[in-house]
Recover the amino acids of this structure.
């Protein structure tokens, strides 16, 4: 009986790390099997996500783009960091830096991102964090949600893995809506998508991600 390979996960974070926490918890509770988070990298030294990783005994480091001459050098540093740790899957969890070609080419269909809307709505340049929910309310849509997708060289443009819809209520503020999207959608579909990947149940066919 071959020992099933443990999927080695690297995380990229910038903020509070609630998505990272849910992924760590899902692994600890057995919802995601055969996986472990081996390293967490933030572009911001003050990101609480780094604290969450340290509390769980996971390597947590800060790599700040401004310390690199070129963006390509930052990209190369990320590739080196994750390759040295034999990372199989990179999860961007609230990461606010647009990754470059170098990382995407080094990890083809091995980088996931969570976006707090139903892509292709309310995504792309300028749509991140609370701004997404402000735009949703501004536009007056009745349904929003979250999307997990593979990362390509665009912004929020890679093949979609999972989505979940969340209702927009008349009395919602952007903050209330953001919390509902995180609780009812993000924190559920991200661990689920990673679990499917860890079990080898995802196949990318062009723009489509199939369950196998
Ligand atoms: C979340 O809304 C997530 O969708 C977006 O960043 C926000 C903060 O995420 N990508 P986290 O709490 O840092 O995981």
């Amino acid at each position: 009986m071959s020992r099933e390979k443990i999927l080695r996960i690297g995380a990229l974070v910038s903020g509070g790390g609630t998505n990272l926490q849910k992924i760590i918890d899902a692994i600890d509770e057995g919802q995601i099997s055969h996986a472990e988070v081996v390293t967490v990298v933030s572009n911001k030294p003050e990101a609480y996500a780094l604290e969450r990783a340290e509390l769980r005994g996971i390597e947590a480091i800060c790599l700040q783009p401004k310390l690199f001459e070129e963006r390509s050098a930052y990209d190369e540093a990320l590739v080196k960091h994750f390759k040295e740790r034999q990372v199989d899957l990179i999860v961007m969890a609230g990461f606010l830096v647009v990754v470059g070609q170098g990382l995407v080419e080094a990890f083809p269909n091995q980088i996931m991102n969570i976006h707090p809307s139903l892509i292709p709505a309310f995504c792309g340049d300028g749509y991140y964090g609370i701004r997404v929910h402000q735009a949703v309310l501004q536009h007056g849509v009745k349904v929003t949600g979250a999307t997990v997708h593979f990362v390509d060289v665009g912004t929020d443009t890679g093949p979609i893995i999972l989505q979940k819809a969340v209702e927009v209520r008349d009395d919602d503020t952007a903050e209330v809506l953001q919390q509902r999207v995180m609780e009812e959608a993000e924190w559920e579909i991200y661990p689920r998508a990673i679990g499917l990947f860890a079990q080898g149940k995802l196949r990318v066919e062009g723009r489509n991600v199939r369950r196998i």
